[in-house]
Amino acid sequence: MSARRPLIAGNWKMNGRKADGLALVRALADWLAGEGAAHRDRFDMLVCPPATLIAPVIDALGGAPLDVGGQDCHAAENGAHTGDISAWMLKDLGATHVIVGHSERRTDHHEDDEQVRAKAAAALAAGLVPIICIGETEAERDAGQALAIVARQLNGSLPEGATGTNVVIAYEPVWAIGTGRTPTAQDVAEVHQRIRAEARGRIGDGADALRILYGGSVKPGNAAELMAIEDVDGALVGGASLKAADFQAIALGC
Ligand code: PEP
Questions:
Q1: Would you identify the family this protein belongs to, as annotated (predicted)?
Q2: Active-site residue, from 111, 136, 172, 198
Q3: The pTM is what?
Q4: Which of 55, 84, 104, 145 could pair with 74 as two cysteines, CB 3.0-4.6 Å apart?
Q5: What pLDDT does residue 1 have?
């Protein structure tokens, strides 16, 4: 049994008007205060709404034990970067975490490891925990390169000053995101083991405390099996985090 408390993180992506986000977070807060309270010490829970909803979601929490994070940040503290949001701005709103390097950012916005590392460094400087996403494409897996790709992305994206407790890694095979497909338990175990070994080379024994999340089509029906895999310390959940009942069921899978 791992000493690392699992983190169940929801990535709402570009979904939800204010009423939707508030209804979702209120349902989660109610569950955490009610039926979920008995299970609360088994996991940490985080939601990452669109930037427009971070402040109202935090206001609606009413002290519920649920963290709120951003989905991306700029590497600079402020300046002439139209449309961007800095880690310091997220911190100022009350966010605790920020996702960096999600494959949709790497693809849609052509972000590379160096940019992801700069964003993660900014998150640390602002007092946020960066959730650094890495993962291979289907072509890379088919070519037998999955382990080499995640090792390269991890080493390229991990900022100076990272420790086992101030960053989180999310392994998200690109081909599993939003597709309903997941790697085999053996493949997940192999990649997570490699990530921890690479992290050990960078941060030493702190790697024992590092939380490595699995992400990609996590659902209530497969959560328990995925969370039981050695070196899996929680989940980054996309689609299924938009329904309170599904997100809760995933948390109960820990
Ligand atoms: C994600 O985009 O981070 C993700 C894991 O999505 P989904 O759960 O929908 O596959």
A1: Belongs to the triosephosphate isomerase family.
A2: 172
A3: 0.98
A4: 84
A5: 40
Alpha helices in the chain (DSSP H): 18-33, 54-61, 87-93, 103-108, 113-126, 138-142, 146-157, 185-203, 220-227, 244-252
Average pLDDT of the residues in 172-183: 98
- How far does residue 80's CA lie from ligand 1's centre (Å)? 31
- The pLDDT score that the predictor gives to residue 3 is 80
The architecture (CATH level 2) of 7-252 comes to Alpha-Beta Barrel (3.20)
Residue numbering of the annotated binding site for substrate: 11-13, 178, 217, 238-239
pLDDT of residue 183 exceeding 60: yes
Residue whose Cα lies nearest atom 8 of ligand 1: it is 238
pLDDT band, very low/low/confident/very high, at 6 (cuts 50, 70, 90): very high
Is residue 109 annotated as part of the catalytic site, yes or no? no
CA-wise closest residue to 167 among 254, 99, 89, 86: 99
User: Which DSSP string do the residues of 126-162 spell out, in sequence order?
Assistant: HT-EEEEEE---HHHHHTT-HHHHHHHHHHHHPPTT-
Give the residue from 107, 103, 113 showing the smallest Cα distance to 156. 113
